[in-house]
Amino acid sequence: MFKKILIANRGEIACRVIKTARKMGIQTVAIYSDADRNALHVKMADEAVHIGPAPANQSYIVIDKVMDAIKQTGAEAVHPGYGFLSENSKFAEALEAAGVAFIGPPKGAIEAMGDKITSKKLAQEANVSTVPGYMGLIEDADEAVKISNEVGYPVMIKASAGGGGKGMRIAWNDDEAREGFQSSKNEAANSFGDDRIFIEKFVTQPRHIEIQVLCDSHGNAVYLHERECSIQRRNQKVIEEAPSPFLDEATRKAMGEQSVALAQAVDYTSAGTVEFIVDGDRNFYFLEMNTRLQVEHPVTELITGVDLVEQMIRVAYGEALPFKQDDLKINGWAMESRLYAEDPYRGFLPSIGRLTRYRPPAEEHTKMRAVRNDTGVYEGGEISMYYDPMIAKLCTWGPDRATAIEEMRLALDGFEVEGIGHNLPFLAAVYDHPKFTSGNMTTAFIEEEYPEGFDGVELPQADLLRIAAAASAMHRVAEIRRTRVSGRMDNHERKVGSDWVVNLQGHSLPATIAADHAGATVAIGDDTFRVESDWTPGQPLARLTVDGTPLVLKVAKIPGGFRVRYRGADMPVQIFTPLQAELATHMPEKIAADTSKLLLCPMPGLIVSVNVAEGDEVQEGQALCTVEAMKMENILRAERKGTVSKVNATAGDSLAVDDIIMEFE
User: Fold this and answer.
1) Is residue 324, in this structure, part of any structural domain at all?
2) CA gap 237, 244 in Å, rounded
3) pTM to 2 decimals?
4) Which of 45, 49, 358, 468 is the most buried (most CB within 10 A)?
5) Do the beta carbons of residue 382 and residue 356 sit within 8 Å?
6) Is there a domain that residue 136 lies in?
7) 61 and 159 housed in the same domain
8) What are 466-514's pLDDT values in tens digits?
9) 307 in a domain, yes or no?
10) Active centre residues (catalytic)
11) Which residues form the domain of 635?
């Protein structure tokens, strides 16, 4: 077996590979840029080599720099993770020339299947049903518009060498096709060093289901069943599960066998994923093959018991697969939630900064439940603007889908992240959504269910009552501590009342508390709740039971109560005495500042281009400028007709959140 491998990647996937290598007794080498000098994968590896400045195109995807790191350390093999150089045939070729094993498929398979244009042509030649589109190279925006009209709107504009949602745009008309072509081309060049673009029909109401394959160099090939990845935002997966709640056994078998046949047609070895669009009648259409490990591979590992990274390493060393197709059964159900450094309350825009608090739920694996968290960050570390915004992949497993979902809900409730914007509230909201829990979702789920974006959840009355009871009991504990004076006897302490009024999400609920040594009984109207907890003031996570049922709240002290976050809701919960509640109704509401005549930078990022000048008259929807953050380009548009009075930023400027880009008359 290899004695030392280098991981040509960063973040959580680098940490994931290191864990398996360590289990196998293999030493590891990390590479890092200036921005990742103190990163977790650097701390975990046995050795680490600096390879350049923060931008990936000056460090992680510069083949010569990675090859130098291999020479310095004597690594015998390289695992590329995903993204960066994982599907770069020139990198595989350079490794082969240097006598270093590539823990991935051979160069020929990468070229044949890793390139979306070539892979679709091969699939068509093999009589595999594919989505209509234009597979040739597209020279410019005018040609993109012409092709889009021939295919028929809506169309998907995609980077040939892309992945992870980078370099993808949906266009519904000529203007969007023209803009989308240029943005996709720019993103592809920056992320993959390859700006080739192709166009295909965008199939509405699809489900995104993919098949995991694993092949060795001895002619053995298997499929490890499917993953459902239909919960997507901007073509990037957010929640994945295995198996799919939609497939029947016959469709699963047909998709699996077709995926294996496609892999064998190009002499594929290692792990790979064949992606399909599946319609409502379970007709499936080949999309592409990812010639690498997928982000969502943990859910497959949880339902099959196979360590995919270990098998990739063993296949690269020349070993045969230790199992046959009939050995691979589906055991239970697994869910994966991608925790991103992005603010769902600001249109999911990227967020950077220091993780002032990062406390994932405890990992465990029993016969009835499992919690797994693949991460590349730590408390006190920084999220930079240079790389993908994913912080962690939280996974749960249960014997059935309902149990796996409930385990995920509890894990999300107990996941503490502070210091940056993050999508935990949104993830929690999805897992409570009836369309998701029923399994009746498509790739349009987020667009259809949150058309105006995400601004929190209005909790049902039953949840509000439970939270009101819990907050009342917590407030009583906080008031006792506040009124206690050190050195005084208990009978000299100021008495804390039992009658309160709880205000939350527009409801005003009178509450009466009767406390004892074990907890408190809280009466709210005609309902009575028994609340028990060992929570103490200052703890940001409150674990309680209400009528014997667990309730986990993220809490922070605010004047007159708490900021409470629970299952997608983020709300102030104010607890007043009856007199204070009466007086509060007379308080004027604070009026927000008027920013309607300002274009504010919605995220920390780099100004790529400014499309207007002072004095220009702009129309509603017109592109004003483009901001790049975390490898994604974001076009900022005019919300209404107006005239530009001042432009404060130029291309190349780095801006913070809410910096003023331009002003209007």
Assistant:
1) no
2) 15
3) 0.81
4) 468
5) no
6) yes
7) no
8) 999 999 999 988 888 877 654 454 544 457 778 999 999 989 999 999 9
9) no
10) 288
11) 598-664
